[in-house]
Design goal:
This protein has helices spanning 16-22, 47-54, 68-78, 80-96, 113-122, 136-143, 241-252; strands spanning 3-9, 27-34, 37-43, 60-67, 102-106, 148-156, 159-166, 178-179, 184-193, 195-196, 203-204, 209-212, 224-237, 256-262, 267-279. With 281 residues, the protein is an alpha+beta fold. Strand 14 and strand 15 form a beta hairpin. The chain is rod-shaped.
């Protein structure tokens, strides 16, 4: 039941109870708050009737108060904007407290940041996603990076902190630039350190500079890179077709777009092979 209270002042304020009762208003409660003032509680639906009955009489109606559920209801109506804002805030807090808002890669292997971010994304751990509950596979992939000896993941306050440590860089075997292993087209280039002189899709000659150890600002760095070049193969074998294909695979690996043609001396093999070269990777 919704209740409302009417504060009434009069020399004979108590007499209002009889007046309301005679008018068929059910008085749910009354409280004398001053010598000549009382608060009368009635059903919420009778509140307007009370004002109509007492209007023009000797009673001074000072204010109307809400009680119980009615008071809460009216407060909620007045504070609707505040309540909506608070609800949205709580939803945001609850929704994002377990979400990744930022990723930090630290440690001596922090230069692997780009690779770590790719590994995290492949593992489903990206911005605004939930923190990974199972990160064993992610750690395994990071530890598989060259010379990575330690990896840890910790989620704290929306930040996924990844620590990557590598073994002593002085133990690296080569500080030379990366050169093309064949004449053809670059199909893959992985660059961790160094200055790329070509990009995927470029045509290169065998021995061409792919990644330089000298940066544009003059600094020298230790090259860490890998390149794959696709090149054309044309080789004749004095064998039958099956034997020629087997020998070509031994010589060049699996050929793409492979075509065989009979010749006077045997079989001509044509196709595309790939050659890969790396420095410190």
């Amino acid at each position: 039941m919704k209740k409302c209270g009417v504060v009434i002042e009069s020399l004979s304020a108590v007499g209002v109870l009889n007046k309301l009762s005679a008018a068929g208003i059910s008085v749910l409660g009354a409280e004398k708050i001053q010598k000549n003032a009382i608060t009368v509680w009635v059903d919420g639906k009778d509140c307007k009737k009370v004002f109509a009955i007492l209007r023009g009489s000797c009673y001074n109606i000072k204010e109307v108060k809400s009680r119980g559920v009615e008071r809460v209801r009216r407060w909620c109506i007045k504070s609707a904007g505040l309540l909506v804002g608070a609800a949205l805030f709580l939803l945001l807090v609850c929704g994002f407290q377990n979400r990744i808002l930022r990723v930090e890669v630290t440690g001596s292997g922090a230069y692997y940041s780009a690779q770590v971010m790719d590994i995290l994304e492949e593992g489903g751990a990206k911005t605004f996603s939930a923190s990974p509950a199972e990160n064993a596979q992610i750690k395994a992939s990071i530890l598989a990076l060259p010379r990575v000896s330690f990896c840890s993941l910790r989620f704290d306050g929306g930040v996924l902190k990844v620590v990557v440590e590598v073994s002593d860089e002085n133990a690296l075997s080569s500080s030379s630039p990366l050169l093309s292993p064949a004449t053809g087209q670059v199909t893959e280039l992985t660059l961790v350190r160094g200055r790329a002189c070509v990009q995927v899709g470029d045509s290169v000659e065998q021995g061409a500079l792919i990644v330089d150890a000298s940066m544009e600002d003059g600094r020298s760095v230790l090259v860490m890179a890998r390149v794959t070049v696709r090149y054309f193969v044309q080789q004749e074998y004095a064998l039958n077709e099956r034997e020629a294909l087997a020998q070509a695979e031994l010589d060049y690996g699996v050929l793409q777009e492979c075509v065989t043609s009979p010749t006077e001396n045997g079989i001509l093999i044509e196709g595309y092979a790939t050659a890969t070269s790396s420095v410190n990777l």
